[in-house]
Amino acid sequence: TCLHECLQELLCIFGTGDLGRSLGQRLIQAGYRLVYGSRRPHSCGPLPPGTQVADHEAAAQSAQLIFLCVHREHYDFLESLTPQLKGKVVVDVSNNLKRDLYPEANAEHLQRLIPGAHVVKAFNTLSAWALQNGPSDANRQVYLCGNRTEAKQAVAETATKLGFTVVDRGSLSAARELEDSPLQLFPDWRLPMRLTVGLTAFFFLYVVIRDVIYAYVEQRKDISFRIMVSLANKVFPIVSLIMLSLCYLPGIMAACLQLSRGTKYKRFPDWLDRWMLCRKQLGLVSLAFASLHVLYTLIIPIRYYVRYRLAAITISQIRENKTTAFDTTMAWRTDSYYSMGVLGFGLFLLLGISSLPSVSNILSWREFSFIQSKLGYLTLFICTFHTYLYGWDKFLHLASYKWFTPPSYMLCLIVPSAVLLLKMLLLLPCVDKRLTRIRQGWERADPEDGTRKSLLT
Ligand SMILES: NC(=O)C1=CN([C@@H]2O[C@H](COP(=O)(O)OP(=O)(O)OC[C@H]3O[C@@H](n4cnc5c(N)ncnc54)[C@H](OP(=O)(O)O)[C@@H]3O)[C@@H](O)[C@H]2O)C=CC1
Ligand SMILES: [Fe+3]
């Protein structure tokens, strides 16, 4: 048994709660020997088979590596264990319920409590559930940080044996960041979401006032039922088209900045940087709204209101014994409008698919930028054209401007039209040549001046 015991390292876990049990089970499966340290070693419920349990003192004494699976609020009891913990590696796995709950990171607080021990922060980004199920593709990484390299190495070795990939994040001062990371709520999505909500609210109010309230005030007609489908199907494509243009606007602005500065070695303003970094999210929201537009359009024929109107028109024509003549222009107009919509949406799907990491990873940089830039502008152009076709001849009719306001789709066309116009200006041979020279660094390259290169190459 001595050989057996000497080969298998003995580890210790403080705390017999959810995480303590799950972690223990994994450690046993990986071939470690394990002793739990508990306040009540004789009544702590079922533990993974093959483990021992002792009081904190005895457990700490017997192992070199101790996982602390106890909430931060209860750390105080460790102070009395100072002699047993001297020189030991103590792993802090704790998380907080909220950001900035304490002035100090849990792991740093722990290191101050037991200065003789080597504290390593690790495993906190995994859940007890993930540990129990073993590492899966989506949850393979263990982040760790600590002040002592040997201590980190010991923890990294254990994590590797459990099948995780270890990412070293540096000294214990990185603990705060590691503790904050499970509490993050889609940080990259904040700006795009605010924009989406703002634009949606604005255009919704706009169409409610302009369509529903206007009809009520001017003609005493209640068409509020239109909010559910008709108005929704105005707001979604409008927001989608604006968001798609907003994807491409920062790139154009960056090019204009570079042109006016005559160099690429100068940092962009912060807001532009942040805007560029959320282009993917802007595009995805836009794609989601475009899909909604497609679905809403598909249900138009089964709407009660539409079927009622169609039947009413047909019946009145039968009664009056009349037939309306076939209008070829109308056929051309509606068909090209639908066709552009379908084409635009198809290209848009392609853009969305190629932005998936598994797809973009197999594309070369040139292929990726061809799809995202060339096909992206083509998508924007087709979707804008689709909207112009929808307006057709209404742009010049005074009757379309109720209360001197343009229809919502005309209002929204301003942004994509401006983006496309600017892009065409940038494609003019003389402008394009100058921009290429700036981006190749041939023109007034002064690296002294700038701290960062542009995101666009
Ligand atoms: N659950 C999860 O998915 C994850 C949890 N964590 C972190 O792991 C730690 C433990 O979480 P979890 O296992 O869920 O919590 P539990 O409440 O399930 O377990 C905590 C354990 O701590 C011990 N304990 C409680 N009070 C005291 C005290 N006053 N003094 C000493 N020991 C005490 C108890 O063990 P005993 O009775 O044997 O002494 C108890 O079982 C937390 O810091 C948490 O943030 C991190 C990532 C994921
Ligand atoms: Fe449309």
From TrEMBL:
<dbReference type="InterPro" id="IPR051267">
    <property type="entry name" value="STEAP_metalloreductase"/>
</dbReference>
<keyword id="KW-0813">Transport</keyword>
<keyword id="KW-0560">Oxidoreductase</keyword>
<feature type="transmembrane region" description="Helical">
    <location>
        <begin position="375"/>
        <end position="392"/>
    </location>
</feature>
<keyword id="KW-1133">Transmembrane helix</keyword>
<feature type="transmembrane region" description="Helical">
    <location>
        <begin position="337"/>
        <end position="363"/>
    </location>
</feature>
<feature type="transmembrane region" description="Helical">
    <location>
        <begin position="237"/>
        <end position="260"/>
    </location>
</feature>
<feature type="transmembrane region" description="Helical">
    <location>
        <begin position="408"/>
        <end position="431"/>
    </location>
</feature>
<keyword id="KW-0406">Ion transport</keyword>
<comment type="similarity">
    <text>Belongs to the STEAP family.</text>
</comment>
<feature type="domain" description="Ferric oxidoreductase">
    <location>
        <begin position="238"/>
        <end position="382"/>
    </location>
</feature>
<dbReference type="GO" id="GO:0006826">
    <property type="term" value="P:iron ion transport"/>
</dbReference>
<dbReference type="Pfam" id="PF01794">
    <property type="entry name" value="Ferric_reduct"/>
</dbReference>
<dbReference type="InterPro" id="IPR036291">
    <property type="entry name" value="NAD(P)-bd_dom_sf"/>
</dbReference>
<keyword id="KW-0479">Metal-binding</keyword>
<feature type="transmembrane region" description="Helical">
    <location>
        <begin position="281"/>
        <end position="302"/>
    </location>
</feature>
<dbReference type="InterPro" id="IPR028939">
    <property type="entry name" value="P5C_Rdtase_cat_N"/>
</dbReference>
<keyword id="KW-0186">Copper</keyword>
<keyword id="KW-0967">Endosome</keyword>
<keyword id="KW-0408">Iron</keyword>
<dbReference type="GO" id="GO:0008823">
    <property type="term" value="F:cupric reductase (NADH) activity"/>
</dbReference>
<keyword id="KW-0274">FAD</keyword>
<feature type="domain" description="Pyrroline-5-carboxylate reductase catalytic N-terminal">
    <location>
        <begin position="12"/>
        <end position="96"/>
    </location>
</feature>
<keyword id="KW-0285">Flavoprotein</keyword>
<protein>
    <submittedName>
        <fullName>STEAP family member 4</fullName>
    </submittedName>
</protein>
<dbReference type="GO" id="GO:0052851">
    <property type="term" value="F:ferric-chelate reductase (NADPH) activity"/>
</dbReference>
<keyword id="KW-0472">Membrane</keyword>
<keyword id="KW-0410">Iron transport</keyword>
<feature type="transmembrane region" description="Helical">
    <location>
        <begin position="195"/>
        <end position="217"/>
    </location>
</feature>
<dbReference type="GO" id="GO:0010008">
    <property type="term" value="C:endosome membrane"/>
</dbReference>
<dbReference type="GO" id="GO:0046872">
    <property type="term" value="F:metal ion binding"/>
</dbReference>
<keyword id="KW-0812">Transmembrane</keyword>
<dbReference type="Pfam" id="PF03807">
    <property type="entry name" value="F420_oxidored"/>
</dbReference>
<dbReference type="GO" id="GO:0005886">
    <property type="term" value="C:plasma membrane"/>
</dbReference>
<dbReference type="InterPro" id="IPR013130">
    <property type="entry name" value="Fe3_Rdtase_TM_dom"/>
</dbReference>
<dbReference type="GO" id="GO:0015677">
    <property type="term" value="P:copper ion import"/>
</dbReference>
